[in-house]
Predict the structure.
Amino acid sequence: MDLAKYAALFQSESREQLSTMNEELLALERAPAAAEPVSAVFRAVHTMKGMSATMGYATVTALAHELESLLDRVRHSEITVDRSVTDTLFAAVDALERAVEIEVAGGSAEAASAPALARLQAFAGARVGAGASVAVSAAADARPMTTQEFAIAAGAANGAGRAQRTIRVELRRLDGLTNLSGELLVARGRLTDVAHEIAHPALDESLAQVSRLISDLHEEIMASRMVPVGQVFDRFPRLVRDAASSLGKEIALTLNGREIELDRSMLDEIGEPIVHLLRNAADHGIEKPDVRERAGKPRAGQLALTVTRERQMVTMRVEDDGRGIDRDQVLARARSQGLVDATVEALNDEELIRIIARPGFSTAEKITDISGRGVGIDVVLTRVRELGGAVEIRSVPGAGTTVTLRLPVTLAIVRALLLRVDGEMYAVPMTHVRETVELRQEARRRVQGREVMLLRDEVVPLMHFREVVGLPEARFVSADGTTQVIVIESEGRRTGLVVDEFAGQQDIVVKGFDGVRDGLALFSGATILADGAPALIVDVSSLH
Amino acid sequence: MSHTVLICDDAVFMRTMISDILEESGYEIVGQAETGVQAIERYKTLRPDLVTMDIVMPDMGGIDAVREITSFDANAKILMCSAMGQQALVVEAIQAGAKDFVVKPFQPSRVLEAVQRVLG
C-alpha cells in the first residue's frame, strides 16, 4: 500500500490531536486531581499511536507509547500529578509535535526525540523507585487495559456531535469564488440601473429574483470562508503558560468566544498581533506573584482574550489585571525623544496610544525573550490598521490594561471613500479616514516651508493628491473658496489629503495587483465600482 | 452484489485507510461513524453486511457498541480493529459478540483476510 498519500491526512489529524492534548493538559494543570483530562489526553495519544504505527513512523509511535504508559500510571493514581508531571507531559507533547513534522517530511526524528523519550522513561523509572526505565516500559507494555480502565478512557463524553461532513478546499479556490461573486454584485448594480431606465415590469420581477439569488450566493460563499477563531487561538493558553513559567509568574488565560467565526484570510493575519499583545501583557503588564501579593491582588494574574461579533465587525479584547501602563514613564520617554511638548503634564488614553504606537517606542526596562526587543505595540497597531481595523487602549495604573481590536470579519470586501481626481476614480479604505473637511483658505498656513492646515487645535501637514499621482496642479477651489480635504491617519500620524471632489462611499471588492505601474507603491489594489468604472485603491500607509 | 461495510473509528486517518483498503477489493463503504453512539445509530439505519469497530472512541467505546449492536441484531458481523496492547479488550469484545479482530498497524492483506473470514 502506498502510504505517502496518507501523510497529509496523518499530519492534519495529528495536529488536531496535539491541540487536544495541550488543551487537556492545561485543564489538568488547573485541576490536578481531575480524571477527565487524563482520559482525554490518553485517548488522543492512543489514537495517534495507532495512526503513526500504521504510517511506520517509529519515533512518533515510541514517544506516544511512552507517553501513554506514563498517563496510564497517572490514571491509576500510581503517580500524583504535580508540576513536574505536567512539565514532563508538556515536554513530551512538544517532542511528539516535532517528531510528527520531521517524520512526515521524511526525516528521522530519533535523535531530536531522544531527550524527551529518556525523560519520559526516567520519570516513570524514578517514580517507581528501584525499577529501571526499561523494566518500567516493558511492564507498562505487558499490562493490557482492563474493562474499567477502558471505560475511563472512553468515558468522558464530549464531541459527540462532531460528525459533520467536511471537505478540504484550497483557499485559492475560495478566493476565486469570492472574487466572482463580488463581481456579480457589481454587475447586478449596473443591471439594476439599466432596468430602472427601461422600466419594464417583467424585467423588474426577474431582476428582483436574480438579485436575491446573487445576494444569497454571495452570503453562502462568504460563510464558507468562515472558521472559528479557536482554530488559531486554542494554542494561546499553552503559549501564555510557557511565557508565564519562564518569567516566574502565575498567569491564567481565559479564552472567551473561541467559537466566533472569522474569514480565514483575516484569522491568518490576526494571530501574530494577538500573540504579541498576550506576550506584552504577560511580560510587562502582569506583576510577579510577590509584587501582586504586596499590592493586595491574588498571586495569579488574570489574562483574558475575548472575541465578540457584531454584524460585519469582530472585536478582540486582551485584558489583564496587571500594573497598567506607567504614564509617567511613557511621558518622560516621550519628552526625551521630543514626541510631546515639554509643557504636557499628563496623557489621556488617545495621546497614550499615539505615543506608544510610534515605531520603536518602548519603555521596557530590559529586553526579555518574551517581548520588548525594541519592538513595541506599534507593530500591532500598524498591522491592525493594515487589516482595516482600529485599536483602543484603556489602562488604569495598578489595575490593568485592556487593548481592544475592532476588525472587519473579512479582508475581501472593504468600505471605501471614493474620490474623483481629473476624471479618474480612486478609493481610500474608510479605516484610514479620520474625517473629511471643507478647508477654508484662512485655515491654511505655511510652517517651515511646508503647507499645513489648522484642524481645531492641531497642525496637520497637507498633501495634494494630484501631486502624489503625478497630475498637473489644478486649483480646484469651489465657489465659496473652500478645498476638499480628507484627513487620513496611518501609524498615528495625520495628514490632510487635498482632493478635487468626493464621490461618496461604497463597499468595494479588493483585487490584488500584479505589476505596479511605474513602480509606484502608491496603490494596494484595484476594484470595479457599481457603475462599472475601475478605481485604484490608495495605500494610505505609503503616503506622508 | 458487493458487501456493504460500516467503518467506526475516531480518527479520519484510520477510516480513510480502512475504507481505501476495502474499496480497492470491491467492498462498498456505506457509512462511517466516529463514536460508539453513532456506530449504533448508523448500524440500525444502514444495516451493513459488516462493521469494522475501533475500541477506544469518545462518548461510547467500541465494546459497548458491539453489545448494543448484537443485542439489536444477533447476526451482526463485527470486526474489531484495535491498537497494540489491548489484547484483553479484544477477548472481551469477542465475548460481547464481535466475530474477529485485526491489530493496528494494519497490513491490508490481514484486514482483507479477516473481513473474508467474518463474512464467511
Remarks:
- DSSP finds five helices and five strands in chain B.
- Chain B has one domain: 4-119.
